[in-house]
Write the structure tokens for this entry.
Amino acid sequence: MNVNKSLGEFIKGIPKAELHLHIEGTLEPELMFELAKRNNIKIRQNSIQELRDAYHFNNLQEFLDIYYEGASVLITEQDFYDMTWAYIEKAHSQNVLHAEIFFDPQTHTNRGISFDTVINGIHRTLDDAEAKFGITSKLIPCFLRDVDPKSAMETLNQACAYKNWITAFGLDSAEVGNPPSKFKEVFKSALDKGFLTVAHAGEEGPAEYVWEAINLLKVSRIDHGNHSMDDETLVKHLSKTQIPLTVCPLSNLKLKVVKSLEDHPLKKMMKSGLLVTLNSDDPAYFGGYVNENYLVLAESLALTIEEISQLAKNSFLASFLDENEKEIIIKKIEEYNISFHSK
Ligand code: HPA
Ligand code: ZN
């Protein structure tokens, strides 16, 4: 039996949740050019190939500059619908049964697109995704940490009109120099209004930022969290509390958070008892959706079928689904394991 082929099949078929996915990061060059044409917007690059060739980054900021530029083609509710639908079709093809999706409201409101346009487009897709494919989802608007917290507070207030559609708030964009403490008041207000919280921390920033996200922002999950591994006390705390980390291998590689996938700390995280999940972050920019992230890491770190299965289970355990829903899907994964092994 071809081990890689069977590993690929196992990964493809196993039910998964995706918990770290920026919807603006799913905008593939083909659709970007189509939307640019539709909206009469000029893209700097002259072709899809030229655009793809520009996707080489030395750090998070170099990526963010291109990513925000790419988002400028999104104007109408239908544009947000089309972008989100393209992701849903991809997710369905990869057996993603549940997605907790980030979007960056300020990236759009700062250029005159209303919060309502953005959320209505995305939410309409998610309704259709459930009706057509049975894919369930949660929405997580993120505050831009390199922008004034006053703007985050305004965003929170706008979002309150859509309380039923929003599960949690997140924190993303340029990390170093923008610690979680900068957003303590905004997050307190979100928590007081009954929302959950998550935050990108320890991607480029130090372990101290992960502590701040936990202690000051009261997060339910840490997004990335790679630099947690630099602090033994923090690793013990994450293991004890089971605060999940949403890890994104191809993103880590493309943004030079790790030197190579062989150096990726995922296995060490698992051995330390952390609740880790695998995700694609910005798949249109980093060269792979969730299954590719599983596959490249499985190959680079020689993950076993049992470890892959645990990661898939973790993706649901770390989700914002209720305990009942989690139990049902964990059983499905166990049945999948048995049926795969008896093939
Ligand atoms: N880190 C911070 N901000 C982001 C990312 C990321 O990986 N992707 C999109 N916005
Ligand atoms: Zn991210």
Remarks:
- The beta strands are 16-22, 96-103, 136-144, 168-172, 196-201, 221-224, 245-247, 276-278.
- The chain is about 50% helix and 15% strand.
